[in-house]
């Protein structure tokens, strides 16, 4: 059943973003899905519209590019600007290295995507929500926001920034009836480790050996749950992990 509501999801071509888009589509939300890969977005749009009978708008851009973000989002027709849910999902980790040996290009990519990209998208969408005095923002963080681990320095810092920004958003938007939720997943088997290790499939698979990790669908279920609560209920901060994981450092294999 269609809800008449609209969710905007960044990084929707894979992983958590793709799973969130599918979950919200299943619940009757129309979608604005964004990502860098236009071909994947269009194929996904066709699949979602056919399977769930909803409307989907695609916007291909890189969240690191503020001008591209503004141009793409402002190109939406007014009817698409009534965003009920914004899922700031686009993000990544690159490599594992000590702080003195880190690749500064990797640092820039992580900070520009995980922190600045979230800010750029939010800066455009929040005024639309304020005008309607309603909406919910879900920022996808990580257990790395809560526990720093060896060689995770800049990635952990970027996700700690997401945590802090979520708290700041919650305070600043309190007057406008806008919910803000930070969802911090633990180990989840998606493209995350493949991207982190720059295509090294064996190294990526080793991350999840010996225990059952979260799936993208598990995370999407939690995100949707947070957005399905009564209007007077807001989950501000949520950490979810596999049963075998206590935090970003401790995993029982």
UniProtKB/TrEMBL annotation:
It comes from the Bacteria. Coiled coil: none annotated. Keywords: Oxidoreductase. SUPFAM superfamilies: NAD(P)-binding Rossmann-fold domains. PROSITE patterns: ADH_SHORT. InterPro entries: NAD(P)-bd_dom_sf (IPR036291), Sc_DH/Rdtase_CS (IPR020904), SDR_fam (IPR002347). Transmembrane segments: none annotated. GO terms for molecular function: oxidoreductase activity, acting on the CH-OH group of donors, NAD or NADP as acceptor. Pfam families: adh_short. PANTHER family: ALCOHOL DEHYDROGENASE. This is SDR family NAD(P)-dependent oxidoreductase.
């Amino acid at each position: 059943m269609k809800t008449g509501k609209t969710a905007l999801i960044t990084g929707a071509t894979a992983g958590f973003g793709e799973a969130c888009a599918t979950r919200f589509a299943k619940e009757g939300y129309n979608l604005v899905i964004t990502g860098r890969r236009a071909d994947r977005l269009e194929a996904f749009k066709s699949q979602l519209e056919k399977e769930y009978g909803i409307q989907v708008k695609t916007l291909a851009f890189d969240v690191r590019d503020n001008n591209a973000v503004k141009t793409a989002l402002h190109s939406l027709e007014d009817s698409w600007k009534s965003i009920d849910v914004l899922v700031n999902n686009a993000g990544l980790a690159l490599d594992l290295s000590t702080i003195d040996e880190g690749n500064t290009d990797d640092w820039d990519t992580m900070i520009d995507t995980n922190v600045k990209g979230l800010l750029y998208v939010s800066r455009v969408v929040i005024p639309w929500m304020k005008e309607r005095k309603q909406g919910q923002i879900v920022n996808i963080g990580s257990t790395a926001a809560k526990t720093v681990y060896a060689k995770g320095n800049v990635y952990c810092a970027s996700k700690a920034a997401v945590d802090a920004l979520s708290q700041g958003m919650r305070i600043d938007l309190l007057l406008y009836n806008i919910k803000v939720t930070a969802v911090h997943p633990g180990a989840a088997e998606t493209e995350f480790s493949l991207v982190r290790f720059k295509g090294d499939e064996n190294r990526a698979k080793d991350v999840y050996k010996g225990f059952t990790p979260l799936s993208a669908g598990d995370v999407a279920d939690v995100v949707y749950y947070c957005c399905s609560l009564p209007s007077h209920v807001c989950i501000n901060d949520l950490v979810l992990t596999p049963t075998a994981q206590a935090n970003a450092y401790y995993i029982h294999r």
